[in-house]
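Please decode residue identities from the backbone states below.
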């Protein structure tokens, strides 16, 4: 855009220099300017100085002119325009000159400035011989006094309009692209009107009249465009409105360091704490979807529904449309929870607007449609950890009350006070999520599913994921293996990526060479000192040859998380057998036994696979009980034995709902977990090391149950055992463990 601007600036220079040149050649035509040469003789010194500066301008103009012609040949059309206008100007100048000549001389002197007037009053002095140069200048000035255009301020006035036109036309063309307006109609209109005005500007011998035409040529199409723009767009995108001008003013002021609060916000961004933005592949589509969705009557409805569902900070939500109404559910910690119902009047237009925002067909309620959009959600973060400390202090106080130890009670009371004081004030935060949006007609209606793309997980260590020290040690030992295969597995969306990353960070990557295949489809975090090898192809032969060249680099460890074919797998197994390499892959599975069988099912060489498999890690996520409302209880002996407790211990569950006594209000649900009883998740891990028994079973009867039994015989413990530990420690409930393991 800046280049365009500079180019046009050069053309202005061209116009100015041509004009000046035109002025200077005119006297060579025989117009017989006797009066003017006489007037010239009276010129003051001051004017001579002015003339010098005009000459400078002229020279500069010509220099630029040459440059412009060399560099900007591509804009020949525009230049031609400029020149055409210029030629007109010259002709008219000449005509003006003639007219002025033939017109009454006295009238002309009245119209001229003070100097000329005074000069006329003085009796004409004898003609003083002057240089041709000064002669030209004087003619130039005199011409102007008859309504010409040679005066510097007039040229500047025209240039200002010209530059304003350049700026506004630039804006128009980008605006057309941005909002999908008809640029083929608007841009030629802007050009045509302006250059038409320019021609009239040169053609009409009265400066102010001609100037009016020039300004009209700029302003009229611009005003029409702005009107159309503002009609079509929402208030936040309108231009030249009081709000917009205030915003422009604030921005200009910010350049000189003054801050002006504008608070210009789109009406589609206020009212509800969510902003919905499109997420298309290209900008043009995206802008169109945004405009169309915002223009749709259902857009505010969509924002209302989404802002209600976002309050619980879900990982996604679902709307079920039936004849009677619309029910909603939200996904939190991997579990779908039912939420409030909406009316069809509210939710039907909302869905249409969201479909438009995602580039889907709003009228199609039957076929499966997929799209994506973004939600920016503003909320107040209120530090539940601070409130938990208050609760713990209060619990401690309650426990002491029974002891009747006054000193201790007072200390506990002080602790509660301190904890309350330490509760931080709510803080405004913003969450931005990419939503994968699917709609599908179902029996009796339509279902819309909104799943959020996984955000960055804030875990820094495996312990944060809930891995025990013992488990971490075992996995680290396995990661030191010099040869063989290791598998990491988990069901979908169970944090496998995080575990892999944290495991790699804990593994020595400095004395051994680590390589990781990047297939260009799946994205994984970079880990320092693990060299990524791109194989961005689906062609298996290409994969195999790339893998061969990688093996030539003599790597110690190769990570290939998504192996595309059994052939590639077999190559890797051969390499392990022949060259002693350690390889790591991943697979989606509920437990280790399933992971092993899933890879065998790809029809890779089963014998080689079984022979070279070292170990499998599997993980699943389980919800943690809400620390604010979990309830302790003493389970029956049978349950205690089940969970591996050696003595009578309390374990925890979600709070038992209390039936309100007659006349009493029902108990408010826990505000921290909104009555769900759970908040957040932790992982359960299992690490199995493949022994002889497992290898035998895998080769002879590869059935899930038998493999599990064999793994147990080889001395492995399963995930359930980890889960039982979590129940004993009060992290989760028995009920949740059963759900998570099912
Ligand atoms: Zn709770």
């Amino acid at each position: 855009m800046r280049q365009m601007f500079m180019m046009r600036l050069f053309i202005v220079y061209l116009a100015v220099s041509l004009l000046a040149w035109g002025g200077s050649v005119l006297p060579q035509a025989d117009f017989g300017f006797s009066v003017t040469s006489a007037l010239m003789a009276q010129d003051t010194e001051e004017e001579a100085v002015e003339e010098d500066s005009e000459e400078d301008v002229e020279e500069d103009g010509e220099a630029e002119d040459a440059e412009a012609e060399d560099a900007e040949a591509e804009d020949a059309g525009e230049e031609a325009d400029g020149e055409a206008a210029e030629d007109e100007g010259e002709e008219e100048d000449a005509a003006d000159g003639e007219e002025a000549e033939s017109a009454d001389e006295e009238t002309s002197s009245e119209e001229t400035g003070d100097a000329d007037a005074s000069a006329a009053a003085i009796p004409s002095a004898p003609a003083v011989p002057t240089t041709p140069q000064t002669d030209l200048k004087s003619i130039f000035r005199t011409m102007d006094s008859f309504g010409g255009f040679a005066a510097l301020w007039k040229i500047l006035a025209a240039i200002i309009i010209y530059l304003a036109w350049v700026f506004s036309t630039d804006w128009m063309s980008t605006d057309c692209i941005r909002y999908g307006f008809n640029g083929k109609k608007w841009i030629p209109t802007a050009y045509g009107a302006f250059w038409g005005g320019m021609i009239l500007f040169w053609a009409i011998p009265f400066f102010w009249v001609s100037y009016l035409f020039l300004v009209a040529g700029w302003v009229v199409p611009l005003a029409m465009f702005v009107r159309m723009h503002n009609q079509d767009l929402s208030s936040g995108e309108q231009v030249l409105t009081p709000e917009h001008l205030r915003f422009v003013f604030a921005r200009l002021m910010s350049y000189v360091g003054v801050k002006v609060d504008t608070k210009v916000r789109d009406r589609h961004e206020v009212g509800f704490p969510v902003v919905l933005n499109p997420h298309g592949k290209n900008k043009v589509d995206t802008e169109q979807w945004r405009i169309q969705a915002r223009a749709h009557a259902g857009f505010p409805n969509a924002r209302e529904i989404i802002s209600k569902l976002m309050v619980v900070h879900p990982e996604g939500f679902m709307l079920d449309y039936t004849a009677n109404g619309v029910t909603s559910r939200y996904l939190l910690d991997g579990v779908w929870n039912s939420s409030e119902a909406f009316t069809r009047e509210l939710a039907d237009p909302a869905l249409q607007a969201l479909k438009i925002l995602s580039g889907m067909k709003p009228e199609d309620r039957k076929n499966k449609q997929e799209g994506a959009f973004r939600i920016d959600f503003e909320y107040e973060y209120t530090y539940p950890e601070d409130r938990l400390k208050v609760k713990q202090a209060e619990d401690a106080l309650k426990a002491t009350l029974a002891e009747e130890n006054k000193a201790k009670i007072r200390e506990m009371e002080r602790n509660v006070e301190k904890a309350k004081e330490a509760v931080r004030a709510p803080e405004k935060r913003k969450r931005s999520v990419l939503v994968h949006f699917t709609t599908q007609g179902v029996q009796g209606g339509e279902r819309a599913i909104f799943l959020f793309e996984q955000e960055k997980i804030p875990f820094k260590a495996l312990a944060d994921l809930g891995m025990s020290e013992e488990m971490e040690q075992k996995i680290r030992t396995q990661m030191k293996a010099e040869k063989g295969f290791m598998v990491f597995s988990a069901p979908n969306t169970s944090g496998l990526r995080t575990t892999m990353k944290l495991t790699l960070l804990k593994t020595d990557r400095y004395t051994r060479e680590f390589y990781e295949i990047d297939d260009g489809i799946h994205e994984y975090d970079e880990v320092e000192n693990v060299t990524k090898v791109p194989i961005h192809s689906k062609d298996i032969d290409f994969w195999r040859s790339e893998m061969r060249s990688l093996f030539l680099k003599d790597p110690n460890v190769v990570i290939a998380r998504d192996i595309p074919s059994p052939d590639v797998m077999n190559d890797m197994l051969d390499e392990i057998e022949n060259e002693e390499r350690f390889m790591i892959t991943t697979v989606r599975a509920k437990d280790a036994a399933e992971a092993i069988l899933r890879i065998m099912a790809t029809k890779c060489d089963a014998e080689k696979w079984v022979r070279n498999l070292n170990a499998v890690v599997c993980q699943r996520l389980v919800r943690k009980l809400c620390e604010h409302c979990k309830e302790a209880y003493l389970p029956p002996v049978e349950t205690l034995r089940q969970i591996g407790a050696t003595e009578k211990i309390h374990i925890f569950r979600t709070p038992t709902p209390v039936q309100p006594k007659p006349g009493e209000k029902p108990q408010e649900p826990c505000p921290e977990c909104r009555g769900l009883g759970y908040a957040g998740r932790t992982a359960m891990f299992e690490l199995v090391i493949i022994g002889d028994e497992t290898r035998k079973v895998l080769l002879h009867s590869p059935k899930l149950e038998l493999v599990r039994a064999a793994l147990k015989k080889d001395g492995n413990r399963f995930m359930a055992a980890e889960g039982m530990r979590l129940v004993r420690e009060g992290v989760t409930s028995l009920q949740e463990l059963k759900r998570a393991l099912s």
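Observation: The mean pLDDT is 80.
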